[in-house]
UniProtKB/TrEMBL annotation:
This is Ice-binding family protein. InterPro entries: Ice-bd_prot (IPR021884). Pfam families: Ice_binding. Residues 1-20 form the signal peptide. Residues 225-271 are annotated as: Disordered. Residues 231-247 have a biased composition (Pro residues). Residues 248-263 have a biased composition (Low complexity). Belongs to the ice-binding protein family. Keywords: Signal.
């Protein structure tokens, strides 16, 4: 019989069966991204955990990414992690079956702890809900014979004390996450993993033999034991006052000798503090039949002289950007939340932190808090 959640989405409940056993990632646990042949990145992705590759050596495109963890390129640490991944993959594949979901779209299902099998490929369109029934140790294992694919703006929703740390996707070939997908759990693919633009993962991406491809994604396992947490934002050191150099008699037209705006040729230091930064944001709206609370909204930082923006959602780094447009897509999550943007400037303007609060309704509306952004130095 169907079950209706507070967000207004009808779900098909699958009867509970035997509970799945824990899957131990061992030394692969610190990694949020571990590839076999290579790992590539396009755009300002954020990795809250370690990055590695073995037996390949290529880690490309991470110059503009935010890496909150160690990097292991074809070293002994990555090699051992791959060995432990192979063991964990086998444990997941050997779990006693709770239910065979072959031919069923994961979207719209409400699943309780257990092991679920797809003899070939699996598809997620819409929202999959995993209910741990108030047991934070409950395990979910998905045994997928070939490929896993998610449609754009699909999501995995965890309720009843479920945690992404205890969700395992054992995939026979490859996984592809669609644009804007909000995924949860540990993806363990025998071949490759590809994420489209703005897809996010609360969990890990672990590929045994193939390549992992990222495009402007956030991969976060900092909530899981064994994973390095994102380091706190370093404090901003106040800039010392600018002391004009002794005047030489040469000044710019309209400038007094020793003025802080006089050119360097005039014997003074040129200092500008013209940086500005303000929030703009789109109103929430439904996308592809999803309610507004599932669609979220886009927040953008606009201004002058902006050098870099680091976004945090409820205190956790979710994106870094070093060139315009400085945008962040915010998913519709239940309850009250706070998005902050730490903005640094190309000139001498002091760094600023902008704060935006929003509240997602329990039904279908996402209501960002409108009003002026708050600045803190």
């Amino acid at each position: 019989m169907g079950t209706v959640l507070a967000v207004g989405c009808a779900l098909l409940a699958v009867p509970a069966g035997a509970s799945a056993a824990p899957v131990n990632l061992a030394t692969a646990s610190p990694f949020v991204v571990l590839g076999g042949s290579a790992v590539t990145n396009t755009g300002p992705s954020v990795l809250n955990g370690e990055l590695g590759v073995w037996p390949g050596t290529a880690l490309t495109g991470f110059g503009i990414a935010t890496l909150n963890g160690a990097v292991h390129a074809n070293d002994a640490v990555a090699q051992q992690a791959q060995a432990d991944l192979t063991n964990a993959y086998g444990v997941a594949a050997g779990q006693p079956l709770t239910s065979d979901l072959s031919g069923t779209d994961l979207g719209g299902l409400l699943l309780t702890p257990g092991a679920y099998r797809f003899t070939s490929s699996a598809q997620l369109t819409g929202t999959l809900t995993l209910d741990a029934q108030n047991n934070p140790d409950a395990q979910f294992v998905f045994q997928i014979g070939s490929a896993l694919t998610t449609a754009s703006v699909s999501r995995v929703n965890l309720v009843g004390a479920a945690t992404p740390c205890n969700v395992y996707w054992q995939i026979g070939t490859s996984a592809t996450l669609g644009t804007g997908t909000a995924f949860q759990g540990n993806l363990m693919a025998a071949a490759s993993i590809s994420l489209n633009n703005a897809a996010t993962v609360q969990g890990r991406l672990l590929a045994s033999s193939g390549q992992i491809s990222l495009i402007n994604n956030v991969i976060d396992a900092s909530m899981c034991p064994g994973t390095s947490s994102a380091p706190p934002e370093p404090p901003v050191t106040p800039e010392p006052p600018v002391t004009p150099l002794p005047p030489t008699g040469l000044t710019a037209p309209g400038s007094a000798p020793g003025s802080p705006t006089a050119p360097g040729a005039g014997g003074t230091r040129t200092v500008t503090r013209n940086g500005t930064a303000v929030w703009t944001r789109t109103p929430p709206r439904a996308v592809s039949g999803q309610p507004a609370c599932a669609a979220g909204f886009t927040a953008t930082i606009r201004g002058r002289q902006i050098e870099r923006v680091v976004y945090r959602l409820d205190g956790r780094v979710v994106r870094g950007a070093s060139k315009s447009p400085f945008r962040l897509f915010v998913r519709g999550l239940p309850g009250r939340h706070k998005v902050t943007a730490r903005v640094t400037f190309k000139d001498a303007t002091p760094a600023r932190t902008l704060t935006l609060g929003y509240r997602a309704c329990a039904s279908v509306a996402l209501r960002p808090t409108y009003g002026p952004a708050r600045f803190t130095g």
